[in-house]
Predict the structure.
Amino acid sequence: MGKKAPKKRNLADKVRKTKTAAEIKNNPFEVKINRKKFDVLGRKSKHDVGLPGVSRSKAINKRKETLLKEYRQKNRSNKFIDRRLGEYDAKMAPEDKILLRFTIERQRVHEKRDVYNLNEEEELTHYGQSLAEMEKFNDAVGSDDESEEKGLLSAELTASHFGGGGGLLRKKTSGGDQLDEQSSQRTRSRQELIEELIQKSKQEKRERQVQKEEAQELTEKLDQDWKSIQALMVKKTPKAEHEDKPEEKPKPEEYDMMVRELGFEMKAQPSEKMKTPEELAREEKERLQKLEADRLRRMMGDEGGDSVQSHAHVSADDLNDGFLLDKHDKKTLSYQDGKWNIAEESEGDKEEEAESGEEDAGAEEANEEEDEDSEEEEEDTSEDEDGHSDLESEQESENEESEREGEARRPPSLSREELMARQEAAKAELPYTFTAPESYEDLKGLLHGHSPDNQRLILARTQKCNHPSLAAGNKLKLQKLVGFLMEYLGELATRSPPELSAVDKLIPELYALCQMFPEAACKSMQSILGDAAHSMEEVIEVKGLAAFPTLDMLVYLKVTALLFPTSDFRHPVTTPALLYISQALTKCPVRSLQDLTSGLALCCLAVEYVSFSKRFLPELINFLSGTLRLAVQDKASAGCVVVPPFRPSGKHSDLLVLSSAESCRSWSETKLPLVSTQQLELNSDLDRDHYRLNCLSTCLDLVKRCCLLYKDLTSFTHIFQPIRTLLSKHLSRQNLPGPLQELHREILEAISSAPVTHTRLVFDKKKPIPLKLFTPKIVEILDYGKKRGCTREEREKERLKHKYKKEFKGALREIRKDARFLAREKLNEVMNRDEERKRKVKMLLGSLATQEGEWKALKRKKRK
Amino acid sequence: MAPAKKRNVSSQPNAKRAKIDLEGIVERLLKSRKHANDVFDILEFLQSEKEKDVICAVNACCKLFCTLLERNDLFIGKLPEEDEALNGGRSAEEKYKIFMRHRYNSCVEIMLEHLNHETHEVKESALCCLMKFAAEQGQHPLEDLDWSEHFSFPRELIHAVVQTLLSQTSDNSLLISRFQEFLEMEDVRYYVMSAIRENVATVMDKNKGAVLPVYQSNVFTLMSNINMPSQDSELTNFMVKQEAKHEDWKAAKLLDHKRAFERMWLGFLKYKLPNSMYKKVLVILHDSILPHMSKPTLMIDFLTAAYDVGGAISLLALNGLFVLIHQHNLEYPDFYKKLYNLLEPSVFHVKYRARFFHLANLFLSSSHLPVYLVAAFAKRLARLALTAPPTALLIVLPFIYNLIRRHPSCRVLIHKPSAEDELLEDPYLMEEEDPALCRALESSLWEIKTLQKHYHPDVAKAAMLINKPLPEQEDDLNEVLEMTAYELMERDLKLSQSKSVPLEFEAATHLLKGGGEVLGQHFCLV
């Protein structure tokens, strides 16, 4: 900016001023050259040449100005203050000072003269400027260059106005004037000159005012125009356009407002392209591939890059409140079908808003609900199905992608009508808001007496009403709900008769909650497993054997497999669960058909757990071969090795032996009910035989699955050796019904087709140790010299320390110099004083001598 | 005096008065001999139906007869028939003593009967009372002998007590554990041991060596409750003090104690034992029987017989055999062959797994074993590991690695680069009983390769070690020997807190779906 103060002149300048800089620099006696040890390329050195004399004189002068003055003032109460105008203003040239003083003096005289001059109009001034004028400036538009202009003006003014005295400063304005002035310079008095000047300036001022008004008018007009077109180009006006016109100055408020408006204006952005179904499919495929890769990585037990979460529908900056999850799901749903469009989606959103509003308002808005009923229904079905239907669709796409997805899921449309109808009925009584249960008893009370479907609805709504994004404490409440729900599932399974269908209905809700709160779900499942295993361990310690796990534990184990990945190399939930299964399979003796059913259910679970990872589970094979052995009639001849919990002989070792061969014919395969792990009523021998055959068929099927799972293991033949001998020698095919014969044959084929030869074991090839490389290791050095700390804080600390040290040294040096200077001054003073005294004494003695001389002369005269 | 009256008193509401009465009677009896006949009342109470009365009476008897023994008011020497003595011309003093001695004898008989009473309190108080009698009797012997030449100890009484304790019909383990307190006394222990030996010999001979589970378990409980001292100087606690010649008393010498102990056990183990008893004996054999025997080698027969039984009994016999081989220079031919044949799938499931592997580790720690033997063991264990639970696998794998480390020539089992590309069938013969012929050295441990796919991460990791040369340091088995499945599980349960939990990304819709639908295929909800 123009008004920048002239660089402060200090003493050094003064000193240098006395001789010109060039003169000093060229004087070899003044210059001291600092010898450099090394020439460093590219380094600029500031201090290669020094002027010690100059700097010393500078320092001495400075001390004289400051320290010496203080010293002189020491112990003095009074002080001499120079109040002359501009005396201490180093910026002002001495000529200026004189000028200023003169003006003030003149003004004083003028004021005194005007004291009695009442009527004369007088302009009031402030800092030498008319107040009236300043008032006019008030409404002027403040702009950046305004002050500059003003500054120029005032500088010029002062220069021309008060510079009259100093002829040197007079500015030659124009050629014409020059002549004029030259001719009339002597004729005109000083008075006239000044008046002329005043006139000129007034004229200038007026002109400027006119100009300003014109400019203002123009800007206003422009504003009007701008407003008229503003609406047309709301979105695309780049900011730059406005910055181009700094001249136009709208009223400050308006302008500010405008600027802000523009700043906050939504910039229209290109809307996202609608994705084609192919793209969507590809995206979905990529997502699944990523998840799959992730799963494989965990299966191998790599712990390295574990940052990627498995639930990828949660974005990276998700707050873990599950809010985005829902949105995301909805979107995929709306796009997936192809039929859904944006309008419909937004409608859905509105509905949701309405619903949430209702939720807040509670039951008072029941009427409104009635109005919206039809819509609501639609919405609700999709809503409570949302876990369901979109998952369904996910699975469908998954089916396309992955071959291992064997069987098609239940078509969603099938149950939709049923659900709709049921919900129609339920709608009447179910409220829309539920408070999250605070205790397990609360949850039981909440769900008590409702049908499974309604229980699910209730849970879904509870989950929605208490969504973490709605209130602060909700997250905690829902986390608790996970634990309660788990407990509730167990209780449903332990009731008699077990309400497994209710459990089945609640699974999706549990899954959704688990996705929201993996930690809570993990913790509650862990505590369940831990407790169960602990109690089993205690029983084993006492008796050596334990009873098979109850139905609720089977349900929990299955739920574990549904909620957590079973293929991980190590997982906080599934690994203990698998260990529990294996413990149960080794420690629980089979004493009845119920026990056997439990055992087979556990085997099924075990196969499910390892079906993907194909991990080896010895207990599973042991149990299956033991089970097959139960079906062998002649135990004594079957000399194969028996592994606990089975015994070579005993009263329970004939559990699966058919009572009559006839029952094979009437048998057809049926599924085993899970309930029969707890209670089993088989009245006739035929029933019992059929049940036995069912168990046997399950067992054989599991063996077949195991064969397929483990066929790549090196010891495959040895693992399946007992089963092979059992099947080929003791459990002849002839005695079995058709489907079982088929299984029998397949198993034997699978076992015998496995390769028996293997290559010998050798250690993994060692990675060759890389040769030592001699390329320099490049380390970034930010500052040379001493090794600095590594972190930013350390470096900063180092820097400050260094600075402090430098300053401290400098200060010490300065203090020493000060002391030396003062001492010198004192010495000077003393010497001066002594000299003075000597001089005076001399003078006195001199005068006395003259007196004496004169007197003596007088005396001599008299005598004469 | 009148028994009729007393019968009335013993009715339920007057039970307390009965007690007071009993105390009164005892006092009266002790005060003057006039009331001598009141002793019948006490004896009657002793045989009463009510436990409380019985206990009161036992206490009363205890007090009465102890005082009488102390006063020497009981007849000393060979006791004449009661009627005869009363009619004969004896002094009133003598008659009284004879009378009281007869009452004392009948009291002891009743007490012995009470040792088989249904209620434990009665048994216990009777036992205590009898032992007090024994103590008093030791101080004031009832036999008329020259005590300067004999050692006074109530042998008959102790024999009788032991005989009743070792009942053939009821399990007396509770009472026996109470009796242990008296076994702390050196002389009692000594005489009890000899009493047991005699009792076992007579009873078993009478039954012609047949198995008597209840009796034998009683004997075992009593015998295993005997805590032998380890040094002569520890023999300080005596029930009966012998004034002179205490030093010469057998009960005061440790060597005699050891002999009695040894004879007692050998006498017991001579007969056929039930299987569970066999195991129990073998469990405590190595540290509470063998060290206290004067000649432990006498156990060789028993141990070799047990070792040949097979199964868990053989496993347990190992421990005793080890002590004998290690400390007593027992030469046992084919020891390793038998050990090799002990390795069966059940080894991993039995209760004594930890003990077995600890010992097997000791036996195989010798570096002088032939390579074929070590290889056979390693291969067999590896083969058996295919059926083992994870806790056992965590023992077996380090075990095998230790074997290979100790015998570097076994390294071909996991590393045979010379025949790398050769495809071959496993030459190992599982059924071969002789480790020299089982061709283990020609084989490789493919089983461990299989276990690399084991479901438990720790096992899989342990099995992965064979992919690289094994580190020099041997694995410490002691950490894993006692680990239970629950402890293994706890590791994972505690591990989780730090990291986030991976979740299943396939959404769950139904209970029986998902995970290959194995459960869904075979089971239905209802």
About this structure: Confidence is low (pLDDT under 50) at residues 1-15 of chain B. The longest helix of chain B spans residues 92-114.
